[in-house]
Amino acid sequence: PETLLEGELFGHVRGAFTGAVANRQGRIEQAHRGTLFLDEVGTMSAALQAKLLRVIQAREFERVGDSQTIKVDVRVIAATNSDLKKMVEMGAFREDLYYRLNVIPVRMPALRERRADIPLLAQHFLEELAKSAVPPRSRVTLGQDAQQALMAFGWPGNVRQLENVMERTFALSPGRAQIGAIDLPDEIRQARAPVPSADFIFPDVGIQMDRLVSDFEHDLIRRALERTGGNKRQAAELLNVKRTTLIEKLKRLERN
To answer: Where residue 1 falls among pLDDT bands split at 50, 70, 90?
Structure first.
């Protein structure tokens, strides 16, 4: 609820809302002369945005239910997976707050843009889960087929989605020393590159082999580029060809 989130950030006095049984410092006050990290800042309501802007500009705020102004000195680091600039254009995010937060922007690449990190992160999550299990489990590793399946998936939810998938897989694979592709959720397995069928019925009039092979190759390249958001290097990795080879094929296909 909005009131609880506001109380978490700004603190509250006793009786400010249901459940506020005592005075409490908020995260902003606790971060005085330090750094405050705000995750998913794009989900803040207009009221919270206005209060956060005041903290950044005037370095002051009031606890929920209180009239006493508290001075504070904090460095704010905000994170979001939303397009704040587009939200500003739509009127869903304050323009003045956007520019206050956008002093030193740092773009974190999406997980699909750094596929080589996926097996490392997945293994890390498995090791942490094994340590925290009751009783603790011995080391669980990822099979080669599982690694390939994880790297082929698009991960719209980024690292958090990967963490949730590994937690689910770990829970449903008790006693297993190694996780295989068969242990992963259906949507992960289905994202793997399909193997072309060897069955082909020749029409009576025959085929244009060069044209058929060219069309199939073009379709594979198109799918690889769609999967990687247009990144040619990553598309080449999916197709197991050199980047220069992919570029040459694209040029040839465009000429045709």
So the answer is: low
Given pLDDT bands bounded at 50, 70 and 90, which one contains residue 255?
low
Distance from the first to the final alpha carbon of the chain: 58
d(CA 9, CA 2): 11
Q: Where are the alpha helices (DSSP H) in 59-143?
A: 84-90, 95-101, 117-132
Q: Which two tokens stand for residue 34?
A: 């330090």
Among candidate residues 154, 155, 156, 182, the one with its CA nearest the CA of residue 169:
182
- Which H or E element spans position 37? strand 34-38
Mean pLDDT computed over every residue of the chain: 86
Residue 212 banded pLDDT, cuts 50, 70, 90: low
Q: How far apart are CA 190 and CA 221, in angstroms?
A: 18
Predicted TM-score (pTM) of the model is: 0.57
Please, are residues 122 and 142 in contact by the beta-carbon 8 Å criterion? yes
Residue among 147, 130, 148 at smallest CA distance from 139: 130
Query: Any idea which residue has 């080669």 for tokens?
Result: 144
